[in-house]
Amino acid sequence: MDIDGHIDSWPLELNEIQKEIAKEGNRTGADAWDKEAEVIGFHVTEYLLYRDGQSRSVKDLTPEELNYLVAATDALVWDCV
């Protein structure tokens, strides 16, 4: 897959993203990077940070959302180096 398709996939698959977030355990960037493009990339980080177009405080993120945000962001770094 080319880099653009891996980091800039649209539309998001919100149901699949919610399933990934709900999974137990800590994820790494490697775990996230290995996922289908529709559940990673910068649109996922946007969704987690701005949900419905409004900024969210980090304290409003669940531990699972925060873990997925960190893993998805780490995967973005992997794509860009």
UniProtKB/TrEMBL annotation:
- Kindly list the GO CC terms recorded for this protein: cell envelope
Which keywords does the record carry?
Answer: Signal
Where does the record place the Imelysin-like domain?
3-78
**Compartments it resides in:** Cell envelope
Which Gene3D superfamilies does the entry mention?
M75 peptidase, HXXE motif
Q: Give the main localization category.
A: other
| InterPro entries in the record | Imelysin-like (IPR018976), Imelysin_sf (IPR038352)
Q: Which Pfam families match?
A: Peptidase_M75
Q: In its UniProt entry, what is this protein called?
A: Iron-regulated protein A
